[in-house]
Specification:
Layout lengths: L1 H49 L3 H14 L6 H14 L3 H14 L6 H15 L3 H6 L9 H16 L6 H28 L3 H14 L5 H15 L3 H14 L4 H4 L1
Helix pairs in contact: 1-2, 2-3, 3-4, 3-5, 4-5, 5-7, 7-8, 8-9, 8-10, 9-10, 10-11
Subcellular location: Cell outer membrane
Subunit structure: Part of the Bam complex.
Organism: Idiomarina piscisalsi
Length: about 260
């Protein structure tokens, strides 16, 4: 009797053991299947990106992000979606995705890339394709997005000076600064045309103070000289003329 009970106990224990092993291995198998599926879906999206089919790639990655928000490719999927939003000119979606990524992953190894992309998105947002094609000067248009891009690139260079994106960010800072200086110069010319000479002179001085390393400084100084002349302020006119003469001796106002 005792031997039968012992036998049943051994059989039951063995069965429970196999059940436990089966249960413990099932999640591992499911995880492996999910990982394989994620890898396949991600590879399909990457192929679409490589082929230039950005709309399809965006759809594929968005679906992947929804189905597996915490999968092994989650962060890379989010970064790829940022790039696709940029390529497709989805400015609001791109900026929202960038801000969300930076907020949730402040110490991620690719945080510098996210910051760089934010600068690119803001810089591109003000781009007007028609004006670019026909070579129309857009310096008198709204520059708020350029100002945001300038802040983005400046922050990237300051926080991550050794980033692989820092060199290009510095070049873009120079270009954006020139763009902003041209905008200020256009405003100053607007005041000059309407004989608002004090406002024009103040704009010129603003360019000297904030964009001293741009080519627009020469015209700003010349505008200040003319404005102070019209305002009958000889001392200020002479001061501006001295700076103009020292830095741009070939300027027409200097030679005259």
């Amino acid at each position: 009797m005792l031997s039968k009970q012992l036998g049943r106990h051994i059989v039951l224990s063995t069965a429970l053991c196999f059940m436990a092993v089966g249960c413990s291995s099932q999640p591992d198998e499911e995880q492996q299947v999910a990982k394989t599926q994620i890898e396949s879906l991600y590879e399909q999206a990457r192929e679409s990106m490589a082929a230039g089919n950005f709309n399809l790639a965006q759809e594929q990655l968005s679906n992947l992000n929804r189905r597996f928000p915490f999968g092994p490719y989650a962060h890379q999927v989010q970064l790829d979606l940022i790039y696709l939003h940029y390529k497709l000119d989805n400015t609001e979606e791109a900026l929202a995705a960038i801000d969300r990524f930076i907020s949730l992953n402040p110490n991620h190894k690719d945080i510098d890339y996210a910051m760089y992309m934010r600068g690119l998105v803001n810089q591109r947002a003000e781009h007007n394709g028609i004006h670019a094609v026909f070579g129309v000067d857009r310096s008198d248009r709204d520059s708020s997005m350029s100002e945001e891009a300038f802040k983005d690139f400046a922050e990237l260079v300051r926080k991550y000076p050794d980033s692989e994106y820092a060199a290009d960010a510095k070049k873009r800072l120079v270009a954006i600064k020139s763009r902003l200086a041209k905008k200020e110069l256009a405003v100053a010319q607007y005041y000059m045309d309407r004989q608002a000479y004090l406002a024009a002179a103040n704009r010129g001085r603003y360019i000297l103070e904030h964009f001293s390393d741009t080519p627009e400084v020469e015209n700003a100084l010349a505008m200040m000289v003319e404005s102070y002349d019209q305002l009958d302020l000889p001392e200020l006119r002479e001061d501006a003329l001295k700076v103009l003469r020292a830095n741009f001796p070939e300027n027409q106002l200097v030679s005259n």
